Give the backbone structure.
Amino acid sequence: MQIILGITGGIAAYKAAELARLLVNRGHRIRCVLTEAGARFITPLTLSSLTGEPCYGANPDQGEWRANPSIEHIELARWADLVAVVPATANILGKAANGLADDLLSTVLLATRAPVLWAPAMNTGMWEHPAVQANLVRLRSFGHAVVEPGEGALACGEEGSGKLAEVASIAEAIQAQGTPKLRSLRDRQVLITAGPTREDLDPVRILTNRSTGTMGIELARAFRDVGARVHLVLGGEAPAPWGVETTRVHSAQQMLEACLARWANSDGLVGAAAVADQRPERPSPEKVKKGEGPETLVLVRTPDILAQLSSVRRPDQWVLGFAAESEHHLEHAMAKLKKKGLDAVLVNDIQGGRGFGAQASTLTPLTAQGPHPPLGPQSKDQLARAVVQWWAQRLEVRPE
Ligand code: C5P
């Protein structure tokens, strides 16, 4: 993407440098536009060095303006696939909400047809002021996205809301805002399970597996980016992705209950969790003492979440599963597809330890008609995007 990064005058302006670098590393082209106050906090040299692109100032005598300054804002507005203002002060929010345009950034904001994203940062009193909140309502009504500030210690010495959101979250929001939406998934409710489940043996011991949850979390991001409303039911410790409603669970039973509570309101389910297949028959409320001689642990089966949800689905709901197989992977996956009543299975060949936490992976989509050309090998974030594109195409032609 070609991104204009507007930087206004707040102490968090230094974090825009980190964001610019992160976005450049992800392959985006970034041109920074500083307001006059922004340029007091961070220099154009820092930003142009990080981005390898010119950095623009508030007016013709500041930063780099070309031969015909009167159309610079139009050229920049057309160049942008997305305009992000990070950090955004109360002042620029007020100007943009009311159509005021008296410097380069505010004129670009008025001229552009690209999506706009705001990451506000300011003192708590300012943030909570009805004028600022009313301006945000107005900006949202223009279709702009807002990455809400977090809470914490602010530069002014106060503690409260108004702290610039995490740079990583802003980068995710930019990615989401800038990704083209897919008709078959836009505004659809997608339920995703991810991560390992944990079954208690006693208060200190658990039965679990090596799943990192990465694939399911990347799928949640990829569905979110194309416009779906994602609800993630997540086991394990991995952080929840930005912009995805997440329910954290511990055991398979909890994962099932969280999914059942949402299923009627969902259009589809992606079962990417590595659910523990067994749990101890009788978890002990106290730590189990070691005994003499051989010890036995009696295990019972956990519920099959995918199979249970699939068995109560409506005809308009779709269900995707995963299969990690180390041998005869397509035959085993086809058996799973039929047994669990799935629309498709994404088959992961884990022979030789591939799959779990591995960097580059390959997935072979399998439907009742048979296998489809494999997706990958690629990193899990790209693979997740490929899965979403593949499935969206099939949904386009699927009878309702
Ligand atoms: O039967 P198997 O565990 O190989 O099936 C894998 C698929 O089923 C995955 O999509 C996984 O998320 C799902 N699954 C489930 N509940 C279980 C076991 C697996 O939803 N108890």
In short: Residues 329 and 349 are 7 Å apart (CA to CA).
